[in-house]
Amino acid sequence: VQSVTQVDGLGTVTAKVTYAPKGVRPDKATLVVKSNDPDRGEQRVALSGAGADRLVSVAVEYPDGGIVEADGGALDVELGELPRDVSQVVWPSLLLQNQGGAAAALTGASFEKAASSPFVLPQPPTLPQTLAARQTRSLPVAFKGPTDASGDARDALNLTFDDPKRPSVRVTLHAHQGVRQPPVACAGIHTVE
Q1: Bond into 128 cis (ω within 30)
Q2: Is residue 176 within a helix (H) or strand (E), and if so which, with residue range?
Q3: How far apart are the first and last CA of the chain?
Q4: Phi first, then psi: what are they for 80, rounded to 5°?
Q5: What is the CB-side half-sphere exposure of residue 87 using CA atoms within 13 A?
Q6: pLDDT, tens only, 95-129
Q7: In 41-167, at which residue ranges do the beta strands (DSSP E only) sit?
Q8: What CA–CA distance (Å, rounded) separates 55 from 101?
Q9: How far apart are CA 128 and CA 161, in angstroms?
Q10: pLDDT at residue 157 above 90?
Q11: Nearest to 145 by CA among 187, 55, 72, 83
């Protein structure tokens, strides 16, 4: 970048230099300041820096306090047997943690079955959702129904991040809700003693 600035006698100019690292590797550059000053026509300023690492992890925190972390890019969440009335169920939360030293962002959160998913994010994040260095955010997940004919509910939540080491995590969700069987008419049953 080149620019020309006139500085009057005994004046000063402040130049703002911004560093936007592309990764964690060290970077070096030289800022060259040229002037028509016969004694100091060119000044060189060495610049260096290194980007901080981002490392996003995803875990599930169950209501009983148990935590299970994703294995690489996948996490299985088993919600177990659900009661008929799920309005009083305490649901697990996904824990999104930036374990790195630089800000990271959640850039996407979508169910593979979209609107027909039996699961919902009761408090969907505003995207992109920034996670500062060492910050953890909770993302609750809930069952909204319905189940299939056998009482099973399955879907996957795809989370995407601007983290080059872990750009996405697939969270599979499974729950089972007992299916009411129709009453069976019984006639002519005899007990034997």
Answers
A1: yes
A2: strand 168-177
A3: 99
A4: 75, -160
A5: 1
A6: 999 988 888 999 999 999 999 999 999 999 999 99
A7: 42-50, 56-61, 67-69, 74-82, 93-98, 104-111, 119-120, 129-131, 136-140, 142-143, 152-161
A8: 8
A9: 9
A10: yes
A11: 83
pLDDT score at 189: 56
Of residues 96 and 184, the one with the higher pLDDT is 96
pLDDT at 31: 86
Closest CA to 153 of 112, 119, 115, 110: 119
Nearest to 89, CA basis, from 113, 120, 68, 112: 120
* Cross-strand partners of 67: 61
Which single residue is written with the structure tokens 């909770």? 138
User: What's the distance, CA 129 to chain centroid?
Assistant: 8
44-65 pLDDT tens trace: 988 888 777 778 889 999 988 8
DSSP three-state, residue 72:
coil
Bond before 146 cis per omega within 30 degrees: yes
